[in-house]
Design a protein that fits this description.
The structure is a single chain. With 98 residues, this protein is an alpha+beta fold. It has one domain: Orn/Lys/Arg decarboxylase, C-terminal domain (Ornithine Decarboxylase, Chain A, domain 4), CATH 3.90.100.10. Helices cover 18% and strands 20% of the residues. The strands form 2 sheets. It has a 3-stranded antiparallel beta sheet with strand order 3-2-4, covered by helices on one side. Strands 1-5 form a two-stranded antiparallel ribbon. 24% of the residues are buried.
Length: 98
């Protein structure tokens, strides 16, 4: 990881379970728009999102973004985790279904 020091306190796994709202293919290839990370809760992900480590997808296209996802992404970046799968690696904005 890029950061140093203690690991951040992350949301419990129960807050990271995303509900599937639409098929991944439809979400990924359909009409999309960008939203600020802070405003992404409630939107439907249009791209996969994972932080490394551990590298396991946090969200996949077609899943609804919850507050726990936003918090995990924000804290993970602050801790120096690498983000993969997204079109904006800074995670200032996420690509979501329009």
């Amino acid at each position: 990881m890029r950061g140093s020091g203690e690991l951040p306190s992350l949301p419990p796994v129960s807050q990271l379970v995303g509900d599937y709202v639409m098929p991944p293919r439809e979400a990924f290839l359909g009409r999309t728009r960008r939203v600020d990370l802070a405003e992404a809760a409630g939107e439907i992900a249009a791209e996969p999102m994972r932080l490394y480590p551990p590298g396991v997808p946090l969200l996949v296209p077609g899943q609804r973004v919850h507050d726990g996802h936003v918090e995990f992404l924000r804290k993970g970046l602050e801790a120096g985790m690498f983000v993969e799968g997204v079109s904006d690696a800074s995670l200032e904005q996420l690509r979501v279904v329009a």
